């Protein structure tokens, strides 16, 4: 059974940084793609970034480009989301997700069957 566990969330002021981690029970090379999503109160879950585990290709939501970096450590079975220059609108519950399948340019939650429980990120002005 796939198990994904997020950590690293917290409360920071605007302009600060956080690094989220997602530890997988499986070798991350077993997945085609892993991603980070977030959900703010009263809003839909949105894709933030994804990485193709085979070659390291990455995609970012426009809101994350230039500020967030997704990466992987195969030996630790872990992916990361480095978040810099955080803004209050980045506040939300951040989820890690994984899938098999094919290359997709979009970051769509309906394509991902495996999910973690989430870690809270709160950015104050």
Give the total of beta strands: 11
User: In angstroms, what separates the terminal alpha carbons?
Assistant: 40 Å
What is the number of helical segments per DSSP (H or I, 4+ residues)?
0
Q: Please, what is the average pLDDT?
A: 96
Describe the structure.
By secondary structure, this protein is mostly beta strands. Helix content is 0%, strand content 48%. It is built from no helices and eleven strands. It has strands spanning 4-7, 10-13, 18-24, 33-39, 46-52, 58-60, 68-73, 78-83, 92-99, 114-115, 119-124. The strands form two sheets. Strands 2, 4, 5, 6, 9, 10 and 11 form a seven-stranded mixed beta sheet that branches. Strands 1-3-8-7 form a four-stranded antiparallel beta sheet, with no helix packed on it. A hairpin with a 5-residue loop joins strand 5 and strand 6. The radius of gyration is 13 Å and the shape is globular.
A few lines on this structure:
The protein has no helices and 11 strands.
Features:
125 residues; mainly beta; four-stranded antiparallel sheet; 11 strands
Write the layout of secondary structure elements.
Elements: E1 4-7, E2 10-13, E3 18-24, E4 33-39, E5 46-52, E6 58-60, E7 68-73, E8 78-83, E9 92-99, E10 114-115, E11 119-124
Parallel strand pairs: 2-11
Antiparallel strand pairs: 1-3, 3-8, 4-5, 4-9, 5-6, 7-8, 9-10, 9-11
């Amino acid at each position: 059974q796939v198990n994904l566990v997020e950590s690293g969330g917290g409360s920071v002021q605007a302009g600060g940084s956080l690094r989220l981690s997602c530890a997988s029970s499986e070798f991350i090379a077993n997945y085609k793609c892993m991603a980070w999503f977030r959900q703010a109160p009263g809003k839909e879950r949105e894709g933030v970034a994804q990485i193709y585990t085979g070659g390291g290709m990455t995609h970012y939501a426009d809101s994350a480009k230039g500020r967030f970096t997704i990466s992987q450590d195969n030996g630790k079975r872990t992916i990361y989301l480095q978040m810099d220059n955080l803004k209050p609108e980045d506040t939300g519950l951040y989820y890690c997700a994984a899938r098999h399948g094919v290359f997709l340019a979009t970051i769509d939650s309906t394509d991902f069957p495996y999910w973690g429980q989430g870690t809270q990120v709160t950015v104050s002005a």
